[in-house]
């Protein structure tokens, strides 16, 4: 029995916040693995994760809040405190120039 959930091109585009044309380009260039079902493409979530992993600038373990399993928690989520900013970072840029 088939247990995998397939994503449409539209769903992939929405998830990674790009256009559907961009997703189709990735598929055409064979950067993103996809399965042709009729005239439509479907992407297995694991393949999307693998694609994104090959295009990251550094591993998730290098980010603050990264868990051992590679997942990350956004600062301020799930009770985690947001990191402190330098004193002048919260001031508008124009205000910092006048100091």
TrEMBL record:
Gene3D superfamilies: 1.10.1660.10. This is Helix-turn-helix domain-containing protein. The lineage of its organism: Bacteria, Pseudomonadati, Pseudomonadota, Alphaproteobacteria, Acetobacterales. Pfam families: HTH_17. It comes from Roseomonas alba. Residues 60-99 are annotated as: Disordered. Residues 6-52 form the Helix-turn-helix domain.
């Amino acid at each position: 029995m088939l247990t995998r959930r397939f994503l449409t091109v539209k769903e992939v585009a929405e998830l990674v916040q790009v256009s559907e044309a961009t997703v189709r380009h990735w598929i055409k260039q064979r950067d993103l693995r996809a399965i042709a079902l009729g005239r439509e493409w479907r992407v297995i979530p694991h393949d999307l994760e693998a694609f994104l992993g090959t295009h990251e600038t550094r591993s998730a373990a290098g980010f603050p809040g990264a868990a051992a399993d590679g997942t990350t928690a956004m600062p301020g989520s799930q009770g985690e405190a947001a990191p402190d900013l330098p004193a002048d970072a919260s001031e508008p840029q124009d205000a910092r120039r006048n100091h």
